[in-house]
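Dear colleague,

As promised, here are the two records you asked about, laid out in our usual form so they can be pasted straight into your sheet.

NAME FIELD: protein one
SEQUENCE, THEN STRUCTURE:
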Amino acid sequence: MNQTNHKTRALERHLGDGMRARLPHWAAELVMFILKQGWACLFGGLMLIGIIASKAIWQDGWALARYDGLFLYALTLQIAFLALKLESWREARVILLFHIIGTAMEIFKVQAGSWAYPETGLIKLMGVPLFSGFMYASVGSYIARVIRIFDMRFTPYPPFWMTVLLACAIYVNFFAHHFLPDIRLALFAATLILYFRTHIQFTIGANTYWMPLPLAAILSSFFLWLAENIGTNTGTWVYAGQSAEFHWVSFAKLGSWYLLLYVSFATVTLVYREALGPNTKKASD
């Protein structure tokens, strides 16, 4: 077990013992599930805090633009996570992949007029502030960390090449639907057909639980949709046709996040291949 896992397990064990000493078993398990989920999405949560706080305090006359400040904040977070062993170098590789994938999509979508970043900044590439790549990276960070923290296994898992092919088709459709018919309905169906039998096995304490993978994707996409509303309602990015702040993002975007999660998951499995099978060991928290 590496140092990152050792520190995580020690913290979880301490919290778990405290919860089980004070709460009924079912309540302790629920509290631990929520705490572990919060721990897994730490990077994304801190990014949202940075977006909200910067919107509240930033002044137009400051020498540093808010977008540039957010980029430096995100970069500092990444360095701190590695230095404090809150994240492994293996997970950092996943985040780098997401940063590249996300920034490429952002550039295309901004150029296509799907959304825009209305504020000024120096650290931009073709109209896209580079902190935005860290927002996609936070999704990859969450998936990689939640697999490790919950000791997840995905079983029975479809043929790996089929999952990669589906992820590629989803990613290409995000670009191609601007020129060709949108096939997202077929892609929705494909995710259910391919992953219908796949269960996520995860451990809390000495107990193993499971959840259908498509259900986990739906729940996760809902929370990502809520997070996206924070971004738009702080004016950090604005969708085409969005008339004012405090305007809820269309529920159609929830479907986009649902599909993007399968791209994210397939990307993570390129690094975490050992999670694609039965769980043969117990967690030690």
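NAME FIELD: protein two
SEQUENCE, THEN STRUCTURE:
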Amino acid sequence: MSGHLPVMLDEVLATLQPRTGGHYLDATFGGGGYAAAILAAADCTLWAIDRDPDAIARGAALAARHAGRLQLVHARFGDMLESLAARGVTQLDGVVMDLGVSSFQLDEAERGFSFRADGPLDMRMGRDGPTAADLVNTLPEGELARIISEFGEERHARRVARAILRARAEAPIETTGQLAEIVRRAVPRDPSGIDGATRSFQALRIAVNDELGEVERGLQAAMDLLAPDGRLVVVAFHSLEDRIVKRAMVGAAGRQGGASRHNPAALLQRVSPDFALLTPRALRPTEAETAANPRARSARLRAVERLAGAAQQATA
């Protein structure tokens, strides 16, 4: 199970501070690593959301071991307000979110997330909506280039899009192996050693799952659900997600985004902010953790706490 280690677990628990009698949400259940640790840390009640039915099925054993304390919810975390309200939950003492694709999804070739093993070009975290194959075989060149540039930060996005259109004119692109080879031939070799397909695969995955939209909706919903003194802890793995998290948390703490020496006014507090920023700078994994789990290398942890005098926004 070394490929499924929960990232920055010690830091997550130290920041979340689960307490006996509290009500918490693991908004990205995945392999259940955070959930198991939260349940072990305090005699609390935990709700756990995942859009992937396989994750919910895997969680059944953990829920059975913590009967009455762990409730699994099959839903998108961006819809947590509605999903939890339907179950009578309108306030929480803490929320943890671990963004991006799970290790289980990456490691299962049949899910189509990774270029490291050939599989169907799927990439859906759930089981609904268009697949990555649908996108690469139907989208016009300009839209493909936009997705690859914007979500993958790929400098050669236009070149990749043209290569995809040339390939699909000959035959449909149906597997991860096919797409990876098309992309690798289209981009120059990266001197850092990063596989040439990495950025394009990330971009398509984000587009297929509307990941950045989910992050924005999920952050707002989580903050709306927090009770006074409640904490939101988020672990992000790439700059696009982390930028959204930082902006949302800095704003909730009553500061304007984009502070710099050229714009010191951006650090000024608004009157009566609802949240306190617990991480003025993102926390990073330790060298020991990145050595043991290379997937932790890019992780960034940020957190906020609802101030005791702030009104909680969620309604029944």
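A couple of things worth noting about protein two: The beta strands are 23-26, 45-50, 70-74, 92-98, 226-236, 275-277, 300-306. Residues 211-225 form the longest helix (15 residues).

Best,
R.
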